[in-house]
């Protein structure tokens, strides 16, 4: 120990010896705090400040005026943005509902021990590992009305002409096309969370229920569902937050069209900020979305702590 | 229910967090519902109040 201490160059050893433990801890933590302030906190505060102005990032020399709460007022009374919120709500509701139902069903099946269990789990989890850009392009080909496989499969089951409908080009079908792709990609994630929940239920609870002659149906509703519920809540919140911010997949698939039927809030925000260059207005829009996601994230953390307590 | 009300008056974390969570969920619903424009208009302030409240009440004693 003495040899190590004596190996330290004397000026450094002297200066370190002069610092208290608390000061040394601060020296180590300071770079992280500085980076956090520079990368997260400063842009956030700047965005809040810009949201009260009429700043345009493409007109540098223009006088920036303080407009108070006018940007927020305009966003929250704009019927087009309200429609974008509804498109986002449609996307959120159906993706979460389908992913929870299919994810739970798959987890239930995978939890039954059978031959090739691990192989099937790997195959099911594959879509989740792909890049959203790749998935978007891949499904764009599948949805092609002339050569796409999707239309042929629908045609096989329903008898309608494969070229008689366009999943990405029709106003009534385009919102469903993005729901299908997101469900295909992210159901495995929900399945994994449900599987963790199902595997955390001890066997002796089911054995006790068997002794009490509870039916399988009763066991499912009184043991399985309540014990998996915190995990399901976690999956719902996580997917909810992620899908509220959905951008890449939808841009690749529909680009927000036809019209603005699949223009989710994040796509609309990008248009306001980088196509119309209304930076102040877009900053207010971003703050509204940020507060919403932050609120949902607070509930998410609370749910996570509940799961940890179990 | 009486435990909940007692917790609210004694500034306990559980019931206050529950109230904040309800406000946030209500705000998010108001933001995305297709029925009433006024609900959309007041959604942001509801979510903001809920979120700030959540941050404050998470420091209350258990």
Structural write-up:
The complex is a heterodimer of chains A (310) and B (62). With 310 residues, chain A is mainly alpha-helical. In chain A, 74% of the residues lie in helices and 0% in strands. In chain B, 77% of the residues lie in helices and 0% in strands. Chain B contains four helices and no strands. Chain B has helices at residues 2-9, 13-32, 37-41, 43-57. The two termini of chain B are 17 Å apart. The chains are: A mainly alpha (310), B mainly alpha (62). At the A-B interface, helix 5 and helix 14 of A face helix 2, helix 3 and helix 4 of B.
As for the number of domains of chain A, it is: 2
The assigned structural class of chain A equals mainly alpha
Helix content of chain A: over 70%
**Distinct helical segment count of chain B:** 4
Largest sheet of chain B: none
What is the H/E order of chain A?
Answer: HHHHHHHHHHHHHH
Q: Cα-atom Rg of chain A, whole angstroms?
A: 26 Å
Overall CATH class of the largest domain in chain A: Mainly Alpha
State which percent range the strand residues of chain B make up.
under 5%
Amount of beta strand of chain A: under 5%
Uncertain spans of chain B, ≥5 residues at pLDDT below 50? Answer: none
CA-based gyration radius of chain B: 13 Å
- The average pLDDT of chain B is 89
Distance between the termini of chain B: 17 Å
Helical run tally of chain A: 14
Mean pLDDT of chain A: 88
Shape of chain A: globular
């Amino acid at each position: 120990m003495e040899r190590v201490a004596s190996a330290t160059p004397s000026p450094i050893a002297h200066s370190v010896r002069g610092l208290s433990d608390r000061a040394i801890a601060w020296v180590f933590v300071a770079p992280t705090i500085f980076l956090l302030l520079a990368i997260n906190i400063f842009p956030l505060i700047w965005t809040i400040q810009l949201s009260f102005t009429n700043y345009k990032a493409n007109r540098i020399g223009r006088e920036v005026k303080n407009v108070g709460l006018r940007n927020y007022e305009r966003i929250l009374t704009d019927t087009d943005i309200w429609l974008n919120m509804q498109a986002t709500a449609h996307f959120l509701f159906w993706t979460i509902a389908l992913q929870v139902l299919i994810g739970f069903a798959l987890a239930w099946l995978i939890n039954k021990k059978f031959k090739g269990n691990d192989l099937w789990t790997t195959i099911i989890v594959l879509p989740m590992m792909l890049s959203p850009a790749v998935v978007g392009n891949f499904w764009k080909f599948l949805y092609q009305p002339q050569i796409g496989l999707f239309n042929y499969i629908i045609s096989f089951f329903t008898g309608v002409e494969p070229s008689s409908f366009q999943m990405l080009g029709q106003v009534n079908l385009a919102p469903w096309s993005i729901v299908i792709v997101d469900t295909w990609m992210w159901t495995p994630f929900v399945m994994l969370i449900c599987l963790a929940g199902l595997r955390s239920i001890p066997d002796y609870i089911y054995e006790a229920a068997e002794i009490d002659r509870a039916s399988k149906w009763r066991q499912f509703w009184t043991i399985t569902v309540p014990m998996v519920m915190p995990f399901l809540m976690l999956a719902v919140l996580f997917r909810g937050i992620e899908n509220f911010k959905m951008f890449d997949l939808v841009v690749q698939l529909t680009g927000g069209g036809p019209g603005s039927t699949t223009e989710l809030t994040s796509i609309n925000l990008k248009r306001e900020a980088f196509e119309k260059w209304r930076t102040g207005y877009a900053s207010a829009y971003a703050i509204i979305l940020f507060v919403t996601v932050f609120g949902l994230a607070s509930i998410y953390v609370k749910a996570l702590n509940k799961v940890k307590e179990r | 229910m009486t435990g909940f009300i007692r917790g609210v008056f004694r500034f306990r974390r559980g019931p206050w967090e529950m109230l904040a969570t309800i406000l946030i969920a209500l705000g998010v619903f108001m933001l995305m519902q297709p029925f009433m424009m006024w609900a959309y208009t007041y959604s942001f302030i509801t979510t903001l109040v809920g979120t700030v409240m959540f941050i404050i009440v998470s420091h209350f004693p258990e």
